[in-house]
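worker-03 picked up job from queue 'complexes'. Input manifest follows; two sequence lines, order preserved.
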Amino acid sequence: MSSSHAKDPSFLGGRIPPEIESMSRNLKDVDHELFRKLLKAVVSALEGKDCREVMRSVAEGSVIPQERLSHIIAGMHRLLSEAIRIPPSSLKQEAFKDDLRMLKMPEDFITDFSSVVFGSRRAALEAASSQKDPHLPTLEEFKWRVDVSISTSSLSRALQPSVLTQMKLSDGTFHRFEVN
Amino acid sequence: MTSIIKETQSIKEAVTFINEIDANKFPRLISRIIQKLHLKGERTFSEEEEQKLRAALSLDKRALNLVLETSAFILEQAVYHNIKPAALQQQLEVIHLNPEKAEVFSQSWAAAGPELVEKLKRNIFAPKKLEHVGWQLNLQMAQSSQTRLKSPSAVLQLGIKSEDSEAQENVFVEFNHQQLLEFYNKLEVVQGQLDSLT
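worker-03 finished. Artifact:
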């Protein structure tokens, strides 16, 4: 058994995803300010916000051709998504940074990525991405009332309690039914 | 107690037929009717069975219908007023049912009545009723956006039946621990309200 690999495999897996490789190549001679603007826009997109306007204005104000920018943005999106998927207990900050160093990225950029993945915005990113996961509807609202049937067409003295419930589910459906 | 059966022309005619029915065959007839009384809209006897009955009781189609309908009506009234068996017997004799037949009604009512009342109470109509609850407790290991989860989730399957159709609708609702606990607490409040009624 070869022991040449002292380090665990990168959080990106055995093979670096093509978008991330392409991003690494295209990040050459991108200044820190532009990098930060792009990163900010990608984080917003991951949080579920509409970023087309922001992206457009960043692209217009930059000398870098649009095609290169799109490679960078795609790579950032993929990198952050993959990192967020793994719980912090499994992927520690130092290991994450080491993996990024393998991509030969400037240290400043690595720090910025790291502060997104391990900083205060992580919870919002996780919440936004789990929205897209398959799940059954959850209970949003539960209303109820207790009734007593005093009399019916079959029974002059019924005195039968029952519960009428109304459930509103996360998929927007309403269900009103009786439970006895 | 006010009489629960008014002696109309139709009742008089039915009584005549009932009184003539063989005393041995009558108890089973009434027993069968009372068993099916809570099933609204369903015929007590199939077409074939009615044919056999007509032969066995020597009644033509019209006469048998009258006997079956009237017997059912007597029992429905008994249920509605929740009359005591002795009172029922008395009232049936007032409308000239012979004592033997009145006793059969009264005994069937005494035997099967309480259960019938319970069935009817449970059957009180509502547009939609919860018929069945199924559940599953899952341990979610991962999802597209998250690896290594190990988060428990419960799924409730609510089988809801509509009053006007045979089909049951299945509603699935998912809960995590917190959501399930909140739901449970709400149900406890409802139960508390129900308990305070009795």
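worker-03 released lock.
Chain A has a mean pLDDT of 88.
Residues 66-85 of chain A form the longest helix (20 residues).
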